[in-house]
Amino acid sequence: MSDPSSQTTATAGTSGRIDTSKPHSARFWNYFVGGKDNYEVDREIGDHIKEIFPGLVDVAVTSRHFLGRAVRYLADEQGVRQFLDVGTGLPTADNTHQVAQSVAPDARIVYVDNDPVVLAHAHALLTSTPEGRTAYLDADLYDPEAVLEAAAGTLDLSRPVALMILNTLGHVGDYGQARDLVRRLMAGLPSGSHLVISDSTATSEGMIAASAAYNASGAVPYHVRAIEEIGGFFDGLELVEPGIVQVTKWRAHPGDSANFTAVDAYCGVGRKP
Prior knowledge:
Layout: E1 6-8, H1 25-32, H2 40-52, H3 55-77, E2 82-86, H4 96-103, E3 108-113, H5 116-120, H6 122-125, E4 133-138, H7 144-151, E5 162-166, H8 175-187, E6 194-200, H9 205-215, H10 227-232, E7 238-239, E8 245-246, E9 265-271
Parallel strand pairs: 1-4, 2-3, 2-5, 3-4, 5-6
Antiparallel strand pairs: 6-9, 7-9, 8-9
């Protein structure tokens, strides 16, 4: 049962829109991070890609760890109390609201997705501390202004917000369009807001081959980009140290073995002046 301090725009008809005949990026990623919300078609392409490029599993797992470190940094060190998570995917452990509210119980989190698979599992996200609030919106990355308008029902957009877009922008094939969508979302947020991005990168032949195999499976294509293109999303923002780095390198604890793992995924956190 969802907490009374939570809300969603998902409808009862959502599950009828789910296509189980083709692989799906959220279910595929869920399989890689050890979740159970996936189907045989997702596991089949997942196992096939593991044979081509086992490193993609490391990308999925370490990207999730980056999410936790970034949210803790923003909530603890920067005092951020509002998070807008666009393209959140299927819930697993340590979701944005769980991490943020473990640091700041009064934190408010809005999840945004328009995918029927994700919406069908929204109830698993819709929990909150009594002091805070968690909401789920059926909205589209391709309409940033509508996303911001809907999010304003839960968040105070006159106060800093952390915009989280993790492993999502690869669905936007045109890089210029992807940058414009990010720019428009950040334009609606005040000074002191932060942008958090992580994504797979075309930094090895294995990752490029894995991307091609996934796109040939009938799933909605996902495009891996150059490191410089990940950096381009932060134009006009103040990059937080250590800048654009592999997800395993972003403020990892000195004794964390992930420091020694090279992965084809880069990330960054930027502050709006």
